[in-house]
Amino acid sequence: MNIKEKFGLKVKSLREEKGISIEHLANISNVDRNYISDIEKGKRNVSIEIMEKIIIALDFDLTTFFNDKIFKK
Amino acid sequence: MNIKEKFGLKVKSLREEKGISIEHLANISNVDRNYISDIEKGKRNVSIEIMEKIIIALDFDLTTFFNDKIFKK
C-alpha cells in the first residue's frame, strides 16, 4: 500500500467511525466532496494544507491521526 | 504558525540534529535542494508523497515525525 492509499484508508475509517457521510465531511472541511471521495480511494497526492483541513474536520490532530501502525516503519 | 511552517521547522530541526546539509538531504530523499530549502522556510504546500520521501530520508516514520507538541491541538 502506498502513502496515498494509507492516508485514504485512514480518512475513510475515521469518517465511518464518526458515522458521517463524505458530503458532510466535505462541508465541514471545506474540501470538495469528489476530491474527498478520490482521497479515500488513494487516488490523490493530497497537500499538507488539505490534509490538515480534513484531519481537523474529523476532530483529530496530526499527532493522533498518524499514530497508527499503518504509518509506522 | 501555519501547517507549512510547522512542517518546515520540524524538517529543519531533525536535519540539523542529524548534522546533515540540505544538499545531502536532497540527495538521499531525491527531492530538489531548492525545494527542500523552501519547505524549511514554510513556503511550500508539500504533497504527501514528498512529505513521506523526506521523512523516510530523515530515518523517521510518519508516526514518530508527527509525534511533536507543535502538531497537537
TrEMBL record, chains A, B:
<dbReference type="GO" id="GO:0003677">
    <property type="term" value="F:DNA binding"/>
</dbReference>
<dbReference type="InterPro" id="IPR050807">
    <property type="entry name" value="TransReg_Diox_bact_type"/>
</dbReference>
<dbReference type="InterPro" id="IPR010982">
    <property type="entry name" value="Lambda_DNA-bd_dom_sf"/>
</dbReference>
<protein>
    <submittedName>
        <fullName>Helix-turn-helix</fullName>
    </submittedName>
</protein>
<dbReference type="GO" id="GO:0003700">
    <property type="term" value="F:DNA-binding transcription factor activity"/>
</dbReference>
<dbReference type="InterPro" id="IPR001387">
    <property type="entry name" value="Cro/C1-type_HTH"/>
</dbReference>
<dbReference type="Pfam" id="PF01381">
    <property type="entry name" value="HTH_3"/>
</dbReference>
<keyword id="KW-0238">DNA-binding</keyword>
<feature type="domain" description="HTH cro/C1-type">
    <location>
        <begin position="11"/>
        <end position="65"/>
    </location>
</feature>
<dbReference type="GO" id="GO:0005829">
    <property type="term" value="C:cytosol"/>
</dbReference>
